[in-house]
Amino acid sequence: MTQQPSTRATVPAAEGRRDQYSFVDPRTAFAVIEPPVQQQEEPGLQSRMEPVPDLGETSYRGTGRLQGRRALITGGDSGIGAATAIAFAREGADVALSYLPEEQDDAEYVASFVEAAGRRAVLLPVDLGEEGAPAALVARAVEALGGLDAVVNVAGRQIQQPELEQLGAEQFAATFRVNVFATFEIVQAALPHLPAGSTIVNTASAEAYQPAPDRIDYAATKGAINNLSKGLAQQLVERGIRVNVVAPGPTWTVLQPTQGVDPEELPEFGASEAPLGRAAQPAEIAPAYVFLTSAESAFVVGATLNVNGGMPTP
Ligand code: NAD
Ligand code: MG
Fold first, then answer.
1. For residues 149, 136, 144 and 117, what is the CA-based torsion angle, rounded to 10 degrees?
2. Where is this region: Disordered (predicted)?
3. pTM over 0.85
4. CB–CB of 180/224 below 8 Å?
5. Per-residue pLDDT tens for 279-288?
6. Pocket residue to mutate for ligand 1, from 157, 201, 215, 229, most atoms within 8 A of Cβ
7. Residue in 77, 71, 102, 74 with CA at minimum distance from that of residue 89
8. Are 273 and 310 within 8 A, CB to CB?
9. What are 306's strand-pairing partners?
10. Domains of the chain from N-terminus onward
């Protein structure tokens, strides 16, 4: 058996939670955390968070659901994208991960788990806000993986601005460039490479329906991604390509302590928003991406899978 790489001390799971299939009370599947007030510069390093989120390093159990697949996962260095990368590898997929150059350490940590699962991890640092970058990323991924049949758009930015006057046109545009334009451009560039049976999964948010007043640019991008994906799904289903969306609720990731939310709100992060009474760990979001990428969801097209701890959705 392959030696597992060293694992960081992460948010504790319930005692009986050995893997994602263990029968546990969802309210306590992972600890209710009270993170101390902390702040890093965007995009931040997950390894420096307190506490470090759980990516499923010790718990995610693969059962061959993505055997032989080749996936591009943006934002695969940390948080939800990282947990998805580990899950995909354990399900049998090779993965190309994109991330910003300053996130190299986090990316290498994730790659070590992908490789321990016996799969390939291609590391592709890139700023998706730069012109032409999304298409160039796809080209590099296709070349390195020898093809592509799964696109997973997870990268996103969220900078809170409590007052409208502080939300400059530049930030508004930058948030849309990374969250919406890059998602579109990646799909467009990937299209000629995707055989029938391929899947695209984009990432919205509970904020698509319940925008927080201090994140209106971010929330608007998430509404746009939801809508864009449903339109794309209808167009691409005629080619046998399925498009779906995962819409997470509050999840403990480095997005939060990098100006994503008011730092003073961090100790209560997730507890009040989600009826489940706690924030999710990235390990709990990843299975949704696995399901929507696996052929077991063949009849699921243009759907949004809300993984949000019980927040009502339309
Ligand atoms: P995260 O910070 O761990 O991941 C976001 C990633 O986006 C970063 O690691 C970075 O690699 C990438 N990124 C940001 N700007 C980029 C740029 N200019 N170029 C290239 N890559 C860039 O945080 P996360 O919470 O795991 O976020 C993943 C996705 O989940 C995002 O789309 C986010 O909007 C969404 N989401 C998160 C939550 C939550 O509570 N954490 C809730 C709903 C939706
Ligand atoms: Mg990161």
1. -70
2. 1-20, 36-61
3. yes
4. yes
5. 999 999 999 9
6. 157
7. 71
8. no
9. 247
10. 66-307 (3.40.50.720)
